[in-house]
Sequence to fold (192 residues):
Amino acid sequence: MTPFPRRQRAGAPAAILMVAALSGCGTVSSLNPFSSSSVPATPAAACPQAVILRPLANTAVFTPSAQTHRPLDVAFYGILSDVDAKCDFNGGTMRATLDVVLAAERGPASGHADGVDLNYFVAVTGPDQSILSKKTFSVHLAVPQGARRAAVTDHIEETINTGGRSSGDLTIDLGFQQPPEVVEFYRNFRGR
Fold:
């Protein structure tokens, strides 16, 4: 496993949702003008399914001074909205390019805060749920005063040793890293 070498952020309106993409299969004709036949290229393997784990698609960030972890103590909610994945395979490695859409929404205790840091993970798992690769990312979302919500698209690239597994045997899982107080919060309070 190698680290995620390239990362860019681009602003995105909250209303934009992206659709998970799969690499297509196709053929390419030979570019040799003296060739009498075209040679089909090897079909591209489909990208593993990219899944935002529903229990981990939302998170809550409490004010630092919060004595309790109740809905009125939430400064910001985080939402993992969508992921677009593209993959290239080379032998036993897969290079995945992901565009992850994250949103932050003000909670009752946001006060004059102008943004929030959210932590999420990307993991590649095998058919037996074994983790082949897992990396955590921190993203700052600026939420201007007067705005209720803001979103960002986080662009990451990952190269993973697949151990010879086919793309159909792999899954790309995403979710928020949940501290214990957030797990307890969602156990006790439904909704965002």
